[in-house]
Q: What sequence folds into this?
């Protein structure tokens, strides 16, 4: 099984999973990178997974129909290109022979879903769209901090070795924010250097792992005293994890 991040636009990734013959892609905002990857590797496109309705995640779906040999899966409660198979979370789907568990993760959008592939003996692979980023989380366009907190907790319940495949390369700016929230977090500092080196070599900082995210991602660390204190200083009304997350998210929106 092969996992590839196809860069698209300025900072999107279209994730591709393939077995050497059949491939599926997640959130194809653009068809060109997908076509090139299929062609150069001699793969057949057997399924498309969509996490949410934003155009940078769905824009290439209809353009890929002429090469697509199977279904498009997408959130039931959002408007995505049709025909598609609606998913809501809690079910297991078969996409191109790959099994996925669907998780309901509202917050960034109201119907956002995530997909987890668990293969025996390998680390689970999580496609989380714009819900969980490395060292960050998505903006709350349609949902609340309470929803985003619950969604992130649902993802954190997955095994710690889970590979986190986010839809954007936002890691370096997220880490700058994480360092402002927790100036004494040495894992953040170390990972900043790692990511600086990777980006300088034109490599992706992804996938991350849940284990690493639990150490560096302030939005998963709302219980930490240092994170709470920082959120309080930025206007969090109480120490509840959702209030802390909401204050962090507002702060991140203003953070330069
Ligand atoms: Zn989005
Ligand atoms: Fe996006």
A:
């Amino acid at each position: 099984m092969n996992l590839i991040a196809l860069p698209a636009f300025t900072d999107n990734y279209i994730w591709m999973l393939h077995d050497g013959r059949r491939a599926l892609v997640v959130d194809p905002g653009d068809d060109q990178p997908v076509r090139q990857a299929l062609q150069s590797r001699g793969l057949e496109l057997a399924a498309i997974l969509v996490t949410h309705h934003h155009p940078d995640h769905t824009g290439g779906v209809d353009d890929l129909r002429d090469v697509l040999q199977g279904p498009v899966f997408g959130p039931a409660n959002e408007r995505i290109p049709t025909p598609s198979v609606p998913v809501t979370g809690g079910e297991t789907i078969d996409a191109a022979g790959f099994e996925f568990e669907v998780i309901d993760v509202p917050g960034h959008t109201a119907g956002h879903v995530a997909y987890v592939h668990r293969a025996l003996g390998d680390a689970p692979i999580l496609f989380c769209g714009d819900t969980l980023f490395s060292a960050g989380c998505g903006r709350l366009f349609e949902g609340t901090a309470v929803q985003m907190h619950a969604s992130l907790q649902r993802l954190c319940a997955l095994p710690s070795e889970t590979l986190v495949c986010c839809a954007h390369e936002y890691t370096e700016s997220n880490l700058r924010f994480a360092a402002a929230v927790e100036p004494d977090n040495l894992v953040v500092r170390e990972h900043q250097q790692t990511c600086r080196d990777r980006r300088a070599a034109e490599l992706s900082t992804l996938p991350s792992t849940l284990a690493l995210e639990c150490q560096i991602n302030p939005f998963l660390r709302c219980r930490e005293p240092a994170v709470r204190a920082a959120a309080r200083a930025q206007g969090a009304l109480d120490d509840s994890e959702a209030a802390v997350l909401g204050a962090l998210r507002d702060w991140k929106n203003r953070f330069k």
